[in-house]
Amino acid sequence: MAKNWNWWSRKLHRWGALIAALPMLLVIVTGLLLQVKKQVVWVQPPTQKGAHPELPPSISWQQILEQAQSVREAEISSWDDIDRLDVQPGKGIVKVQAINHWELQLDLNTAQLLSSTYRRSDWIESLHDGSYFSEAAKLWVFLPNGLILLGLWLTGCWLWYLPFSRRRRKSSQPVASPKIADNPQNSGG
Question: What does the radius of gyration of the chain's CA atoms come to, in whole angstroms?
Fold first, then answer.
């Protein structure tokens, strides 16, 4: 039974690695980029600070929209072009994220534009989970890829453990003592 499991572990490990190689490479590379998104400006713009973060926000929704509309690259003409607002009163800013992934950072008291940069982290995250391609790809390619990765981990642990268990088994087997042949010269006769 153990030999059969060892054979299947090797086969599953080999084929699973082959099947999952490309999606796994994409998940690994994008995961590494997401790990350093706060440190790498190319992935996500650094968060600015407003002039007076200690004061309560004083700009209106209309001021936010007007300032966002003034940045040509953001391609914002109405609220429909805005994906989300990230209000950070402790830093005195509001991040306006356009649907085209352009990010604007505005001072919450003056509506001054503090930063206008392309934000790649959301796009990278959609590649990471497969939703960039489609919901079907996310469920039928990336979810099975995750399950295959779990299987690779399990079979890899088993294959790593195998040599140790063999050595332990060999060392626990009783060592047969060599038979001493009856030698007529030693018998004193």
Answer: 31
Q: Which of 78, 83, 85, 39 is nearest to 59 (CA)?
A: 85
Helix H or strand E segment including 13: helix 2-35
Q: Would you tell me how many other CB atoms lie within 10 Å of the CB of residue 103?
A: 22
Pair of tokens at residue 2: 């153990």
For residues 105 and 116, give the distance between their C-alpha atoms in angstroms, rounded to a whole number: 7
Q: How deeply is 44 buried, as exposed, middle or buried, from its count of CB atoms within 10 A (0-12, 13-18, 19+)? A: buried
C-alpha distances in Å from residue 154, one per residue of 9, 13, 135, 148: 9, 9, 28, 10
pTM of structure: 0.68
Answer for the pair 104, 69: CB distance below 8 angstroms, yes or no.
no
- Does residue 50 have a pLDDT over 80? yes
Distance of CA 60 to the CA centre of its chain: 37
Here the tokens at position 178 are 């060599």
Element (H, E) at 127: helix 121-129
